[in-house]
Structures are given as C-alpha cells and as structure tokens.
C-alpha cells in the first residue's frame, strides 16, 4: 500500500515540479473522499495538477471551462424529446465521470455554480424528478482565480464548505522553474504518463484510510480546536461538524501517506490550513489562512 502511494507521488512530481507538499495535500483530499479547490493566479499549473492526478490514479477525466454564459444543463445534462420513442431521453453531461475539473469555477454565475451542490454532496444528479447516480469514485477538482481579478463571482459559503480542502500552488522555486523552462512544460509528458493504480485500487486505499486509528486524546484535541473556533471573538462563526469530520478524515489520510497506522497531532496541524482556511472568517469578514491557523495552533494545547 505504501509503495502505491509513493509511486503516485513520484509520478505526479515528474509533471508538477517542486510541489511535493501540495501533491500530498491533494492526494490526502482524494483518499479522504473529498473535493479539492485550487486557488491561484492563472498559469500556475492548477489545471495540469488536476489532469495529472486523474491520469496517475487511472480515473476517467472531464474538463468544463466555467464562463459567465455557462448553464447548469451544460454540466449536468439535459432531457431531449425523442420523437421515435415519444418520450424524453436524458443525455448525461460531463459531470458523469470520475474526476470533474471545474476550471475557473468562479467565472460562472452563482446559478451555474449551484449546479454542483447536489453532485458534490450526494454524488448524484436529479433532472426532471429522476435521480441519476454518478460513477464511483467521484471527485470535483475546481480551480479559481483570486476574487480580486475582473470577471469573477465569489463562491458562497455553502459551496466553499463542500470542498474538503483548498490549496494554492504559488510560484516554483528557482531550480524547479529552470527544469520547467528546459522541458517546455509538463503537459507534453502527460500523453506518456501511465496510471500508477486502477480505480478499484483507489477505492481500496480509501477504505484503508478510514481504518487509520484516531485515539480519544486526538479526538479531544480536534474537539478543542472546534470549540475554540466557535467561542473565540476573532471569528464570525465557528467550524461546523462537517468541518470537524473533514479534519479527522484528512488527518487520517495524511498519516497514511506518511506510512503511519495512527494519527498524531502533527497530522492535524499539517492539514489544518487547507481544511479550515476557506471556512473561517475573522471578525472583520476578512480571510487570512496563515493567521487563522497560527491562532488555532497557539490557542489549543496538544494533549
């Protein structure tokens, strides 16, 4: 199992250079059965990371470019009247896949953004009172540009909360950027990238992730973090029970990636920023993941 995880990280690192920490976080999100939001400036490799992960994990991949004129039916599918059968026939949209890349999700209108709420929470699509189940495993990997850029629509809190993690890639270090320039980018290598595992093996890894032991003392630590976020005056609202489950599941995945069969406090601290940074606002309604996590870690004692 550990060899498979190491192979996934190694293959992805050949395409996404110098970003092993972000690759591990993205993999932890997938092992924890969550959806991933990648926020950064254009051209930082967000789309390439999503495509690479899908290919390395042996999953079917569909990409939707979100624009201001995109409609929910363009994502979910539509029922079309068939004159030969005298009935409406459902034509599935690109969401019927294993990995849906919602590229630049915040460039679509709120109406179109909300089309993903059901699929992210229930892994199903309801059209004309008929429910269609999505294939398993299923993940949404969304990219978004900073909200300060022109033509963006901020994601509502209800949708942000459905993303298990949010990460940023940031600029590469000098050595990685030199390798990138010498190779003309990593997209050319995607065509020759072979899967490290199959979709069934991924499902087995996800089941194994759920078996990673979390002690009562670690649950005390996790609950203390949740309690502090709800009682501290610098936050407009505390972390929800779903956020607590997300912390536990991501910490289990992080421990598994590092070859442990149990969670330690450092696992929670390692994933804390990615899990809570998009869920907490300070009392001025401003978001600062670094200060948020630092405040939580300083204020809550490790058992």
Descriptive tags:
303 residues, 14% strand, Helicase, Ruva Protein, domain 3, five-stranded parallel beta sheet
Any overview of this molecule?
This protein has helices at residues 2-15, 20-31, 46-56, 72-76, 110-113, 117-122, 157-160, 174-183, 187-190, 199-210, 216-231, 241-257, 265-276, 289-299, and strands at residues 36-39, 61-65, 77-82, 87-92, 99-103, 124-127, 130-133, 139-144, 165-167. By secondary structure, it is α/β, with parallel strands linked by helices. The protein folds into two domains: 2-198, Rossmann fold (3-Layer(aba) Sandwich); 211-299, Magnesium chelatase subunit I, C-Terminal domain (Helicase, Ruva Protein, domain 3). Helix 1 runs antiparallel to helix 3, helix 11 packs across helix 12 and helix 12 packs across helix 13. The longest helix has 17 residues, at 241-257. The protein is globular, with a radius of gyration of 20 Å. The relative contact order is 0.16. The model has no long low-confidence stretch (mean pLDDT 88).
């Amino acid at each position: 199992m550990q060899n498979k995880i190491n192979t996934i990280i190694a293959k992805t690192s050949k395409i996404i250079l110098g970003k092993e920490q972000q690759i591990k976080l993205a993999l932890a999100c997938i092992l924890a059965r969550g959806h991933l939001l990648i926020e950064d400036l254009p051209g930082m490799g967000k789309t390439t990371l999503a495509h690479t992960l899908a290919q390395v994990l042996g999953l079917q991949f569909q990409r939707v470019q979100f624009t201001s004129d995109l409609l929910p039916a363009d994502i979910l599918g539509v029922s079309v009247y068939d004159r030969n059968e005298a009935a409406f026939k459902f034509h599935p949209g690109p969401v019927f896949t294993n990995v849906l890349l919602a590229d630049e999700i915040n460039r679509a209108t709120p109406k179109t953004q909300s089309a993903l709420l059901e699929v992210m929470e229930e892994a199903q699509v309801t059209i004309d009172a008929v429910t269609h189940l999505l294939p398993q495993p299923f993940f949404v990997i969304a990219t978004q540009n900073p909200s300060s850029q022109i033509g963006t629509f901020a994601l509502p809190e209800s949708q942000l909360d459905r993303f298990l993690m949010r990460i940023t890639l940031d600029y590469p270090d000098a050595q990685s950027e030199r390798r990138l320039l010498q190779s003309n980018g990593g997209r050319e290598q995607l065509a020759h990238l072979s899967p490290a595992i199959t979709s069934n093996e991924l499902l087995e890894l996800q089941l194994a992730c759920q078996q990673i032991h979390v002690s009562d003392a670690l649950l005390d630590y996790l609950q203390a973090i949740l309690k502090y976020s709800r009682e501290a005056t610098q936050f407009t609202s505390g972390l929800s029970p779903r956020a607590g489950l997300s912390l536990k599941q991501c910490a289990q995945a992080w421990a598994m990636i590092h070859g442990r069969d149990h969670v330690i406090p450092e696992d929670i601290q390692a994933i804390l920023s990615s899990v809570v940074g998009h869920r907490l606002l300070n009392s001025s309604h401003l978001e600062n993941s670094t200060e948020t996590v630092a405040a939580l870690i300083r204020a809550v004692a490790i058992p």
